[in-house]
Each structure stands twice: as structure tokens, then as C-alpha cells.
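Researcher: Please generate the 3D structure of the following complex. Treat every line as part of one assembly.
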Amino acid sequence: MSVYSLAKALGITLKHMFSKPVTIPYPSAPVPLKPRFHGRHVLTRHPDGLEKCIGCSLCAAACPAYAIYVEPAENDPENPVSAGERYAKVYEINMLRCIFCGLCEEACPTGAIVLGNEFELADYVYADLVYGKEDLLVDTVGSKAQRREAEQTGKPVKLGFEVPYVRPELEGVKYE
Amino acid sequence: MIYLIAALKGLVLILLLLFTFAYLTWGMRRGLARFQIRLGPNRVGPLGLLQPIADAVKAIFKEDISVANADKFVYWLAPLISFTFALAAFAIIPLGPKGSIFGIDPWVADLNVGILYLFAAAELATYGIFLSGWASGSKYSLLGGLRSAAGLVGYELALGVALLGPVLMVGSLNLRDIVDWQAQHGWLALWQLPVFIVYFIAALAEMGRTPFDFVEAEQELVGGFSTEYNSMKFVSFYMAELLHWITASALIPTLFMAGWHAPFGLPEIPILWLFIKWLVFIFIVMWIWASWFRTRYDVLIRFAWGVLFPVALAWFLLTAYWVASRGGAA
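Model: Done. Output below.
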């Protein structure tokens, strides 16, 4: 211990005082996320509008938490839903079970299921946390709870985060 | 009539000090947070300015628990002693010249023995800490009280002897005389630099702030003397502690930096200049608090007896020789 080290300590804290706080006042300010943050899943589409998911259930097989349920159906050749022979008639992810590991994304042969950046999933009822196709498809913005609140207040969904860019796997997703 | 005015002034001062205390808790938390690159409390009201009110409501409505092993009477008395004498010390600090605030003198008491009164009030306030440590019936509290008692013997001596030099130089124990002397002859902090430093260090120990906050020592003693206190009794200890900080930060400028007088020939405005100097010392103490470690209490005792006291004593003798050779105080 010396006077020099005491003075140095004072210098360090004074320097800190004039630097920007690391605290993010989260609900009132957005959280900066890394582009590869594992958040809520997104079911992406091909550029022509067809769903990428072919209902193969490989994601469900890969899922370590048994959170995914897929029920496939044959495509109508006149009016196809997906680009393959079959499509996912039911595609459910239980967000209470999901551990956001991203193995479904790795298992998917068509790149249909991708982990997005949304993380504000908290809700009141267990059943509401089972997300179906309509909640996961690419055009849907916000979690079920956020969309319900937006509907009640009449304001648009406000996402609580910001990313420098949306990674290319999340084809067609826009986070504003 | 004189007594009535003094009582009213006392009341105003107490309210002012309590208000300052409340907002010092806010300022302290915000300030320390900035030193730690955080934001601090900013949720209640704009900038978190209503936080002290929320804290007060919370403290008042908390259940008041007593300890079975406690010595009930002393257990109740200790926070009162601590709080009362912490308030009392501020009474003699002059905030401006005579009759400067709507024709009223901006001080509560104008004592000829001001500095002795100051020591008495400060010493009695530490009784609250010993008594709470002894009366709580808990070993953590006892250890906290013991540390406070052991430390006190060391630093109070240095604190007292440090002020002998300035008193000899000015030739008065009255704080107003000390302030006016400095307006004529320059700051005592320059005339008496070594004891100014000694006094500042000892004052840090007296207000129980880092690096000498071993009386509380959350990490080792679970809060020291205040372990067994909660609700308003705890708040009165907390208030006492912060009031010591408030008082010392006003006292050091008064004793060593010309008090309410403006520095560098700037226009004199009552209260304002003392307030600015007060803010500077509040900040310095907070800065030290955010930066430094906590010493062991035996280190403080050795430091106080081995360094602070000899320096203060030697400087006192030197000042005495100087004053005597000039044939009396300036």
C-alpha cells in the first residue's frame, strides 16, 4: 500500500464516473442483442411464399426437451403449402419446455425452423405458451402475450431489443 | 423571546438536516452507482427523486422487532442518543454573517466554547454505538461496538490535538471567530496543512466511512452494532451516520476553508459558498468510499497513535512556539 496506489484507485473510479453506465434500463430502453442470440423460433418461407417446412419431424427427433410436435399432411399439387411433397399441418413448440439450444435448427434439412431474437415470451396461462404455426410463421411479430397486449391497447407490438442486423437464415424477418 | 427564536431556528435546522439526509441517501446511491458505472435508483419519480419518500414509507411501516436477549431500556436508548447528538453538532456552524437571512443570524447557537461543544457532541454520539453493541445481546453487535470503542480512543485524540494548532493561531474557540480570522488572513488549510490532513483522516474515522468503516463491516459483522435493529430504530442509526457525514463536510470547510466566506474575492452570498464547499467534501468522502478498501481496526489504531497523533502534537508545539514568538495570537 502506498500513496501512489491510493491515488491510482481514486483515478480509476473518477474515470469510471465519466464513462457511460453499463446499465440498460431494459423496459424503457431496448436491449442490444447479438445477431445470433437464441430467441423465439421462426418458421421461414421461400422467396416465392411457400413454406420451407416439409413436415419431416427431424426437429422433433432432435429436440432434447421434447418440446416440438409436428403433424404432417400431403400437399395439394394444385395449391401447395410447402415446396416439398408434404407440409406441416400442425407445428407446435412448447415454449415452457424449449431450452433454446438450437438443435432443431441444426437438424432441419430445409432450414425452415430458425431461432430468432425475440425473447419476451412470459405469459399467464400454460396453454398460451404452446406456440402454433400461426405464432411462428415469418410474418408474425412479437410473442403471443405481446400481440395480445397490442390488440387490447391498439398500439403496435413493441419489441424490447435491437440487433445490428438480422442474420440471413431468418429469411424475411424484420425486427424494428 | 431569545429562547423562542433559538428553538424555532433549531427546528428549522433539524428539518433542513433531515431533508438533506433524505436526499443525501438518494445522492449517495446515485453517486456511488456512477462510480461503479451503474445508473442507481431511477425508477421512483423523475431521476428517482421520490426514492427517499418511498424508503421512508417502507421504514415506518416495517414491523418493529425487539431481541429477547436485549437490555430493553438501553436497546431503545442507543439509537436516540446516536441520532440526537449527531443532530446537535450542526447547531454551532455559522452559515453566513450576522443577521444575513432576513435579519436573523444564520446559526442556532453562538458559543464561546464552540470547539469543545463540538467534541462533546461528537463523542456522545459514539456512545449510541457502544450502547447498542452492548445492549443488543448479540456477538456481532458487541464486536461492532467494541471496534468502535477501540478505534475511538485512537482517532479522537488525533482529532482533538489537530484542532489545537488552529485554535492557538486564531486565539478563540468560537467558530465565528475562526471563520472571520480566515477571511482576513487566508485559509487555515494553508496555514495548518499537516493538521488539516490529519483532521480530515480522523474525521473519516469519526463518521465511520471508508477506509475506516470497520464498525459496520457488513461482510464480517453482518452490519456490526446495528445488526439487531430494524424499522425506525435502524433508520435513526442510519440517519446518525449520514448526519455525521453531513456535519463533518460542513465543519471541515468552516474550520479550515473560511466557512461561508467566498474564496478568491468572489461576491459574498450567505449559505451558498458554504454549500458549495460542503458539496465538495460530500463528494470527496463519496469518492474515497467508492475507491478504497476497508482497514482492519488495529491498523487504524496503530496509524492513529503512531502517525496522526505525533504529527498533530508536533505541529501543535510548532504552532505554539510560533505564536509565542510573535507575542500572542494574530
